[in-house]
Amino acid sequence: MFLSTTEPTIAYGVLALSQPFEDLIGPNLPVLVKTVLLPFRDKIVYDGLMNSFSITFGPGIRRGLNESFKEAKARHGIVTSLPLTNVPLARKLPKAKPAPSPPSREEKDEPLRAISGLIDQFCKEHLNEEYAVLCRKLAEKLGRKRPSPLLQGNPNAWASGIVRAIVGVNFLHDKSQMPYMRATDIDHHLGTSPSTGAAKLAAIRKMFGMHQLDPHWSLPSRLEDNPMVWMIKINGFLMDVRYAPREVQEIAFRKGLIPYIPAGRE
Fold this sequence. Notes:
Elements: E1 2-3, E2 11-12, H1 21-25, E3 32-34, E4 37-40, E5 43-46, E6 51-53, H2 59-76, H3 105-126, H4 129-144, H5 155-169, H6 183-189, H7 194-208, H8 227-230, E7 231-234, E8 237-240, H9 246-254
Antiparallel strand pairs: 1-2, 3-6, 4-5, 7-8
């Protein structure tokens, strides 16, 4: 491999004649030599005369020669025939990365299955089936969002946020309730930190506008005692439909404003 001393540097691939180059200039490279390069049968050789110079190259010069070789190779490649054209090599464009394929249905459902499993196990050990049903319902609503937030983040953190949201509506943190549990205990049992559980809770409440005594997320067994379930507007006035005539209750039930007709419940 010969590098020209002129600018821009050119890298030549040269064939030896009767003697190997190592016999002429020795094994220690690089070496500064003077010779004439000639074309021969689509190859490059030299004219048989070669003068070498006793010059030692330090690390800095070696690095410079290495950089010159890389630039020459990028510009014209390794030249193995003469005459040399002045047309530089076409610059190789970086290969375009293939667009990531969208997640499959199975991949989309995997976080929901993992979260539902954590919720079911937690409710079985610490709460009850009534809580489990509402928590699964909330997890499914999160899974149906596009894009689903469940695809980002840790399943344990989402499970904790979901349980926190449901128990918050139903006052699980009130010591007079049965069952009773602190929010930090939920995080502990579901394997996440209190700060992470609180962050997921805040995100869920914001997405669904959830609040304490929220009629949409109250336990069925507590609907009767939840005043927010029965408050409706009649002629612009807010009233508790439990104290309205049965005819009014039937109209509210048909419109989906209340879960059942209080007057007919035994």
